[in-house]
């Protein structure tokens, strides 16, 4: 079993905890992480970009001027892509960018992301992280004590006080176990996990 030290918000070691090898001891396969991140980013795309073709442009279908005798290039419609306000050629149309991967593969990817942070020694286990009220300065003070300038904090369940205290600080994010995902784990340099979140992680990913 992998072992990690437990620290308090004063950056003092208060104990140790055994980490599940199935979550934090896997061999990391970069191509799986790449596929999962690509899926997440693709699923965020709205796919609502739309342009009008010449058949959808509003306007008359009459010939703008006679065929010969004007000295100008011949024109059959004002909706031509060559004209200002004409139709668009091969422009974007609404489409679905979403990708789908098997549930087991998505779980494996998240476990590998957690294992990557542990193997890089960028995983920090906190005994607890409680704040009396919503205060950005207090949150930042704790991060400075822990020497973290970019991190993802994983809490067992939604914590509005922590979320609102950190949301205005670039590089920090607070997520409940249910919302944890590969992109956010890899996007932040340090991973901070509350001790109470470990059981929730096992329940979510290994059950």
The biggest beta sheet is recorded as: 6 strands, mixed
Q: What is the N-to-C succession of helices and strands? A: EEHHHEHEHEHEH
Give the number of DSSP strands.
Answer: 6
Spans where pLDDT lies below 50 across 5 or more residues: none
Beta-strand share of residues: 15-25%
> What integer value in Å does the Rg equal?
27 Å
Counting structural domains, the number is 2
SS class: alpha/beta
Average pLDDT across residues?
94
The number of helical runs is 7
Query: Order of strands across the biggest sheet?
Result: 2-1-3-6-4-5
Helicity level: 25-40%
In CATH terms, what is the fold-level topology of the largest domain? Ribosomal Protein L4, Chain: A
3D architecture notes:
- The chain has helices at 21-24, 30-44, 103-119, 136-145, 160-166, 182-187, 195-206; strands spanning 2-7, 13-19, 123-126, 151-155, 172-176, 190-194.
- The chain folds into 2 domains: 2-46 and 97-206, Ribosomal Protein L4, Chain: A; 51-91, no CATH class.
- The chain is an alpha/beta fold and 207 residues long.
- A 6-stranded mixed β-sheet has the order 2-1-3-6-4-5.
- The chain is built from 7 helices and 6 strands, in the order ββαααβαβαβαβα.
- It is 34% helix and 15% strand.
- Helix 4 (136-145) crosses helix 5 (160-166).
Question: Which features does this protein show?
Answer:
alpha/beta; 7 helices; 207 residues; 2 domains; Ribosomal Protein L4, Chain: A
What order do the helices and strands come in, and which of them pair?
Blueprint: E1 2-7, E2 13-19, H1 21-24, H2 30-44, H3 103-119, E3 123-126, H4 136-145, E4 151-155, H5 160-166, E5 172-176, H6 182-187, E6 190-194, H7 195-206
Parallel strand pairs: 1-3, 3-6, 4-5, 4-6
Antiparallel strand pairs: 1-2
Helix pairs in contact: 4-5
């Amino acid at each position: 079993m992998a072992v990690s030290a437990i620290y308090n918000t004063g950056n003092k070691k208060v104990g140790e905890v055994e980490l599940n090898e199935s979550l934090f001891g896997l061999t990391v396969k970069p191509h799986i992480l790449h596929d999962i991140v690509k899926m997440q980013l693709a699923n965020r795309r709205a796919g609502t970009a739309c342009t009008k073709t010449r058949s959808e442009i509003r306007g008359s279908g009459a010939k703008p001027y006679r065929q010969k005798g004007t000295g100008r290039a011949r024109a059959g419609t004002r909706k031509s892509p060559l004209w200002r306000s004409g139709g668009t050629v091969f422009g974007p149309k609404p489409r679905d960018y979403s990708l789908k991967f098997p549930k087991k593969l998505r779980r494996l990817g998240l476990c590998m992301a957690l294992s990557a942070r542990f193997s890089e020694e960028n995983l920090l286990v906190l005994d607890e992280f409680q704040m009396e009220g919503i205060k950005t300065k207090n949150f930042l003070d704790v991060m400075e004590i822990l020497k973290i300038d970019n991190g993802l904090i994983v809490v067992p369940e939604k914590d509005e006080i922590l979320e609102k205290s950190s949301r205005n600080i670039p590089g920090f994010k607070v997520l409940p176990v249910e919302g944890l995902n590969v992109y956010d784990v890899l996007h932040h340099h340090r991973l901070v996990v509350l001790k109470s979140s470990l059981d929730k992680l096992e329940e979510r990913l290994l059950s």
